[in-house]
Amino acid sequence: MRIALINENSQAAKNPMIEASLKKVVEPMGHEVINYGMYSADDACQLTYVKIGLLACILLETGAADYVVTGCGTGEGAMLACNSFPGVLCGHLCDPSDGYMFAHINDGNCVALPFAKDFGWGAELKLEMIFQQLFGFGHGQGYPKERVIPEQRNKKILDEVKKVTHRKLIEILHDIDQNFLRETISGEHFAEYFYPNCKCEEVANYLKSL
């Protein structure tokens, strides 16, 4: 699985630590981590949590990433922004049990974590435990066992509902503020990481035209 890491500007200084914690856990599982930044608070590309939502959508909807790990100060803004875009089912994780239950009950493709609130001594250990529970035991198997059938049924219903209530990505890219879009994809390594992995030629060509 190709896992994209995205940090917004208020917590950008923590990106190296978050990346190290994520890689430590998931690379031995056979997953690949691609770090889309921000890499430091001084990056030319300043990602707000709203831009994170758009970037997560672009990565997931085009197949450039299979999963997105992101967050902000509380994780709430990033979660809300991500869920406002098509193809993104984002959970808000605060502890390891959240990671396990989100993976098994909700079976989403994106998580938002609080990187400031309750993020003190031992924060990297907490992150590692969350990532272990999130990625280490499969997805969509339900929890608890007696709830497996209705949970899997509800997940399928939610996926179909989102197809109806959200527009196609290419339509959004055409209609959204173009300066906002350009800023969102102006990250230092965006072109290097995105275009070789993008599976949607229409979206790739449009973004290149900008």
Q: How much beta, percentage-wise? A: 5-15%
Mean pLDDT across all amino acids: 97
- Discrete helix count: 10
Structural category: alpha/beta
User: What is the percent of helical residues?
Assistant: 40-55%
What composes the largest sheet?
5 strands, parallel
The strands making up the biggest β-sheet line up spatially as 2-1-3-5-4
Q: Which descriptor suits the 3D outline?
A: globular
What Rg, in angstroms, do the CA atoms define? 16 Å
Count of β-strands: 5
Determine the N-to-C terminus distance.
29 Å
What string, H for helix and E for strand, traces the elements in order? EHEHEHEHEHHHHHH
Spans of 5+ residues with little confidence (pLDDT < 50)?
Answer: none
Describe this structure in words.
By secondary structure, the chain is an alpha/beta fold. It has 10 helices and 5 strands; from the N terminus they run βαβαβαβαβαααααα. Strands 2-1-3-5-4 form a 5-stranded parallel sheet, sandwiched between helices. Helix 2 (49-61) packs across helix 3 (76-83).
